[in-house]
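A.,

Following up on our hallway conversation. Structure tokens first:
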């Protein structure tokens, strides 16, 4: 295992966010805003899951995982803080976060469960964020140039998600988590993630007043299913998770490494 560097992103999240900050595209803006709404709660869940899993390890295993666990928690806590600031601006635009409260209600069902189930859920979600991250790092121009600050936030976040994509997975494996449950949780997470993302995106568009505009749904089709469509380009890496011998490091992380190397002026390392 290796240590993960915690970085302080050099962006000003106090400045307001434009109504259609993502390339002046209502659908893409609504989709990214929806994803941001899920992060503060979701990343706290991931932190708690990894921390619980780490505490179940034997002392000699803890020594192996300690540096990476600490880096994972530091990175996710930084993501949580910045997206909480981002989401505060969305509230001022009149958007309402229904994703986080709904996920919080589902979490109540997990209280008292074996921590390996928490890790199985986290590993599945981390796979989703890793493949979305890799997609963004290869298609960063889709974020537009209207708000370079938010484009940097999304690409930095993507680079770090790719960087720590194996942490929860490796902990799950080290604790003897079964392949069958890993697959069951991925199936369940897929359903909840896609339904929640679609529902929150539609809600954002409705409050924005652009839900029934033709251009919104033209953009939706292109964004999701076009030549560089999100669904089209992430389906294969998503499906690979179901292979018995799958490991997140089998999927290339080169785009993450390149972004961090080429944009080192955008952040300050604060730990490792």
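Then the amino acids I'd put at each of the 272 positions:
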């Amino acid at each position: 295992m290796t240590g993960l560097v915690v970085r302080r992103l050099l962006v000003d999240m106090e400045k307001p966010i434009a109504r259609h900050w993502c390339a002046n595209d209502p659908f893409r803006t609504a989709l990214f805003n929806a994803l941001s709404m899920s992060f503060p709660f979701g990343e706290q869940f991931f932190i708690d899951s990894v921390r619980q899993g780490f505490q179940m390890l034997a002392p000699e295993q803890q020594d192996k995982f300690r540096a990476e666990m600490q880096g994972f928690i530091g990175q996710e806590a930084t993501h949580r803080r910045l997206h909480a600031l981002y989401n505060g601006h969305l509230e001022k635009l009149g958007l309402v976060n229904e994703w986080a409260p709904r996920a919080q209600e589902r979490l109540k069902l997990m209280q008292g469960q074996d921590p390996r189930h928490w890790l199985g859920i986290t590993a599945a979600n981390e796979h989703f964020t890793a493949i979305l991250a890799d997609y963004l790092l290869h298609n960063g121009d889709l974020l537009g140039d209207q708000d370079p600050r938010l484009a940097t936030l999304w690409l930095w976040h993507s680079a770090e998600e790719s960087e720590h994509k194996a942490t929860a997975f490796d902990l799950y494996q080290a604790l003897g988590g079964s392949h069958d449950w890993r697959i069951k949780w991925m199936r369940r997470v897929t359903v909840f993630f896609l339904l929640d993302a679609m529902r929150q995106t539609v809600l954002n568009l409705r409050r924005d007043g652009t839900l029934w505009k033709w251009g919104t749904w033209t953009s939706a089709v292109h964004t999701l299913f076009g030549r560089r469509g999100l669904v089209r380009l992430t389906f294969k890496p998503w499906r690979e998770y179901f292979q018995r011998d799958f490991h997140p490091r089998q999927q290339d992380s080169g785009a993450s490494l390149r972004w961090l190397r080429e944009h080192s002026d955008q952040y300050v390392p604060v730990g490792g």
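The chain has one domain: 23-97+110-264. Curious whether your intuition agrees with the design.

B.
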